[in-house]
Amino acid sequence: MATLIAVYGSEGCVGRCDARCYEAQDRRCDCICGGRNHGAGLQRALASTVELVQQRRELWERMRLMGGERLVIEPELPLEGVGLHEGDG
User: Is 86 domain-assigned?
Assistant: First the structure.
């Protein structure tokens, strides 16, 4: 099960977007993607995750709402040139 984005807080992993989301059949999504990847399949979810990372503000806000302090992003995503630190871009 590929995890696309994981959110970590002081207590460990507090949320993630993985196959439970992008392969989902139901409508409810409460993970870090905010529904972008829900039921989309892996390939569409990978592309959507790149877009989400490029729109950093939305991602940082979701992370904080989940009680997270840091993100771990799937290392296979094509993110060259994308600043991932808060305040970049």
Answer: no
């439970």: which residue's tokens?
20
Q: Is 78 part of any domain?
A: no
Q: How far apart are CA 23 and CA 35, in angstroms?
A: 12
Residue 88 Cα to chain centre, angstroms: 17
For residue 20, the enclosing domain spans: 5-73
Q: Report residue 83's pLDDT band, with 50, 70 and 90 as the boundaries.
A: very low
What backbone torsions phi and psi does residue 79 show, to the nearest 5 degrees?
-115, 20
Q: Is residue 68 part of a domain?
A: yes
Query: CA–CA separation, 17 vs 20, rounded Å?
Result: 8
